[in-house]
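Ex. 9. Protein: Di-heme oxidoredictase family protein.
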Amino acid sequence: MIKRSLLTACTFGALLIGCKDQAVPEFSHSELRPGGATTLKRLNTRTFIHPSENLDLDRQLDFWDGFSFFRDPWVAAPAATQDRDGLGPLYNARSCKACHIRGGRGKLVGEGTHSPMALLFRLGKGDDGDAVDKHYGGQFQPFAIKLAKPESLAAEGKVTIRYETISGQYADGTPYTLSKPNYQLVDLAYGALQPNTVLSPRYAPALYGMGLLDAISEHDLIAQEDIADKNNDGISAKYNRVMSAKTKKQVIGRFGFKASQPSLASQTAAAFVNDIGITNPFFTHDTCTPSQPLCQLASAMGGHDRTLEIPEKLHKLTVFMGAHVAVQPTRKLTSEKAQQGRALFYQANCHSCHTPSYTTASDYPLKELANQTIWPYTNLALHDMGEALADGKAEGLANGREWRTPPLWGLGLQEKVQGYQAFLHDGRAKTVAEAILWHGGEAEQSKSAFVAFDQQQRDALIYFLKQI
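Predicted structure tokens for Di-heme oxidoredictase family protein:
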């Protein structure tokens, strides 16, 4: 059954780019358990928050202890609950859960003026990857803690979102529409943005499988780098190089939409300080700017200018939980339709950026995640995605057109688990097809292949993506 469906799909693909150019690898039964031994044994569509299947009972207790710091809201300091205080002074959300609902992506707001949580905005200066806005720093924060009167700490402002419609059609004449978002920061409390400040929207990602991505050997990632496109396939994988906040050494980035964080621990720490205002072992100071004296005062009043708001031990528990959020098993991946879509995925050269599989490092310190055969469909590298998705903001070595390749595993479960779905860095795509159609730059050839497919082929490819 599988071999026959592969041949059928290959025949279709040959009409476009030729089967001999992109060999379709033999199907492996390891694809059915994309997280290896960590994969959940049974599908669960209520939540993504499950510990890795191979955690023993003691380690599961650590997972659920860490989960409490993900789930529970933080409060302003000083407070009686010292393990849970330190919120803000300026922030995007009061808890991790507020942005990563059920361990997945957050719920987006629609058109209008909002104080969003799951959609945040990084601020920068075009090609200067280290620059931030003079008044608002590196991230816009629409909420503020309340201070005792007569002082009043103002949130930084709100966001107005408007959409414009872009129309197009597939090669077979079937029409489609895309919604292009336009963002504007309004009700600004600390003066106008600097003239060359650019906005980079970021929509909270799903959490499952993060530890497995952290466990991929750096050697295996660097082996895929091809900045000068020496193999002439039109793909120029590039890894961000960033400074570790702890070791002060330059390492490759693998987390964040522009791969600006080198590890899951540092990504978690960056989210704590930027999104919730919680100082930690990686980032020891609140993000108040010189234009925000009341923010600085509130930070000092909380008493956490002398101690960390989440100390090393509790931060490690939170990272442990995040590392062991299990990947769900695949669904109907062995069906004929999914196998045809799998062949088309390779024929369209999607795998050149969305690398299907790795074996995680055998010496990774979290033993349950080590030496696992995994199927995340990402190379974690930066790629030029074209002008339509460009934000104009550099981040380390990432320029304003480059984004890190996101993993695809579990993509088809968003709507089942959360009741809604949205894709890409700012959630603009409401379907998988829309996400593909936004691809440009290095992905233009693969998008063109998708556009050239007939309806049956497009359906098969999307069906495959929803099963992995």
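Check your answer against this statement. The longest strand covers residues 158-169.
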